[in-house]
Write a structure and sequence with these properties.
There is one protein chain. By secondary structure, the chain is an alpha/beta fold. It has 2 domains: 168 residues, Rossmann fold (3-Layer(aba) Sandwich), CATH 3.40.50; 175 residues, Dihydrodipicolinate Reductase, domain 2 (2-Layer Sandwich), CATH 3.30.360. 33% of the residues lie in helices and 25% in strands. The protein contains 9 helices and 14 strands. The protein has an 8-stranded mixed beta sheet with strand order 8-9-10-7-11-12-13-14, with helices on one face. A 6-stranded parallel beta sheet has the order 3-2-1-4-5-6, sandwiched between helices. Helix 4 runs parallel beside helix 5. The chain is globular and about 60 Å long. The relative contact order is 0.16.
Length: 354
Amino acid sequence: MSAGYACDKQNASPRWGILGAGGISNDFCASLIGNGSCISAVSARDVVKAQDFAKKVNAPSAYSTYEDLVKDPAVDVVYIGTIHTMHAPHTKMALEAGKHVLCEKPLGVNEAEVKELIALARAKGLFLMEGMWTRFFPAVRKAREVLASGEIGEPRYVQGDFGFVAPAHESHRLWDPKQAGGAMLDIGCYVLQAATLAFGPTLPQQIKCTGQLSATGVDKEGCISMTWENKGSASLVFSLTTNTPEQVTIICSQGNIRLHGPAHCTEKLTVAKEESRGKFTETDFKYELPRCPEGQTINYPNSEGFLYEVQAVEKALRGGKLECQEFPLDESLVVVQLMDEYRKQLGVVYPFEK
């Protein structure tokens, strides 16, 4: 069983601190272990949970406060896997402590939070990235390569969906406005990034949004349509009330690209080149995900794919880079601006924003 590198000064791997011990942090650590990375410390609000988590991921230090973790001199980069509403304050705390940060999406629940974090990271000369792991999957990298090559022309239209049936009880975080619940912040961001992948990290000139609210006042399903003048349009749907095929299609002037479901962590890409009206020549690209390390378990589909994000972040840190080109901070800012506009049109306002 691979248990990660020993966390010593001779190890060239960045030393990770894991802030939060929930399901997503568990899955991320499984990929750190699979990569042979150094997990130097973990933290949870409960000391027993922190100790149990540290034992599972072979981390030498366990903390019952997040403040102690970011102060640990044996931590170079902090992974933040806490709830949405705490992403911004925890990221800020880590940056102020001089740590590089990879924060789970969303980086912040609104534009103001994201802008503050970007400014702080740049002022301190620290690495910061929103954990949009989708961008690092080989199939998505291939899609970017095809788009850049121009072999099927220019992107004209993006269609995307993402939906699953969320737990019914209203106390669940997905339905809780105090925890920034709702479909957009949890899964809508994935289809938004498909549009900015195609058209670039700029705001569209037209944005029209519709959706339905839950009894608690958050969005349970929604649709956003956007147009970038002289480029193209996107039509995106997302839902916490139904399972969808979860596919993304990027239609170009001379063909199309299909990211097969689950598109946010896809293993398969189809590139279709136009031959004539309604006739295409298709080529499939299939990528086998890495195996989960022996002795580890994961909570979410295709979480083994966190490995690609881990490798990209560590490469950036070793190279002295402060952002990853696959999902730069300026794109995080555009995505949160789109999420804000969507919530504004639907009337979703979280209690802490009033």
